Amino acid sequence: MSDILKIEPIDNWLKKNNWAIYNHQIETLKLSENGYDVLLVAPTGGGKTLAGFLPSLNDLINNKPKKNNLHTLYISPLKALTIDVHRNLTSPIEDQGLDIRVETRTGDTSAYKKNRQKVLPPDMLMTTPESLALLLSNKESKDYFKNLKYLVIDEIHTLVNTKRGDLLSLNLSRISSISPDCKRIGLSATVKNKNAVLKFLTTKKKAKTLNVEETSVPKIDILETNNRVPWSGHMASYAIRDIYQKIKKSSLTIVFVNTRAQAELVFNKLWQENDNNLRIAIHHGSLEKEIRRKVESLMSLGKIDCVVATSSLDLGIDWGDVDLVVQIGSPKGISRFLQRIGRSNHRFDEPSNALLVPSNRFEYLECLSAINSIKNKLLDETKEKKGSLDVLAQHILGVACSEPFQVDELYNQVINAWPYRNLTKIKFFEVLEFVKNGGYSLKHYEQYSKIGVNKDKFYAIKNKSIRNRYRLNVGTIVESYMLKVKLGNRTLGQVEEWFIEGLNEGDTFLFSGRVLEYQSISNNSVIVKSTSHTQPKIPSYAGGRLPLSTELSIEVRKLLSKKQFWKNFPSQINEWLKLQSKFSNLPSLNGLLVETFPRLMRGKKRFFLICYTFEGRNANQTLGFLMSKKMQRIGYKPISFVATDYALAIWSINEVTDVNIILNDDLMLDDLYEWLEETPLLKKNFRDAAIISGLIERSIPGQKKTGKQVLFNSDLIFNVLKKHEPKHLLLEVAREDSYRGLIDLDRLSEFLKRIEKNIAHEKLDRISPLAVPLILEINRQTIDKSEMEEYLLEELENEMLSEVGLN
Amino acid sequence: MKTIIFNKHKFQISNEGILFWFDKQIAIISDLHLEKGSSFGYSGQFLPPYDSEETLKKLSKGIKSHNIKKVILLGDTFHDKNAFNRMPEKAFFLFNSLIKKYEVIFILGNHENKLKIDNINLLNEYVIDDIHFIHQALQKSIFQISGHFHPVATIKSSIKKITAKCLLHTNNHIILPSFGTYTGGLNINDPALKPFVNHKSYVYMLTKKSIYKFTSKEVEI
Question: What pTM does this model have?
Answer without folding.
Answer: 0.83
